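Many introductory courses stop at the sequence. We go one step further.
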Amino acid sequence: MALTIAIASDEKQLEQHGDYVMLYDELVNYFERLEDFPTIKKLSDFDPYGVTHISVTLQQELKKELERIMIHARNQHLLPPPDHVGMEGGTDVKFGEEFGWAGLIGFFKALENLLEQINEKDKKLFAIGD
């Protein structure tokens, strides 16, 4: 079950969210194993069935940690990321998307971009479950 991390002005506007990033189960499981990045691990704490407002404090912590983890990801000094994501609990890769190092870096960049947009647009960040 995937989560969508998205920007919206409030919970009532979630259906109209613009930019977002998908937090697939495979990523949640991967982040839980990253011992040196406790804030990234917190992404696995969101309700997979509900809507969670991501606090300003957590957003600030994520910004700081993203800077550090991006360096490690670019140099491949992390646990290897999943080769595929989005398989909905299955193992057949044809139902998922290729991921790997490029996907991990792309995810971090997209999340970083969302965090930057929040300040520019005076919006909030939400994790939206299925």
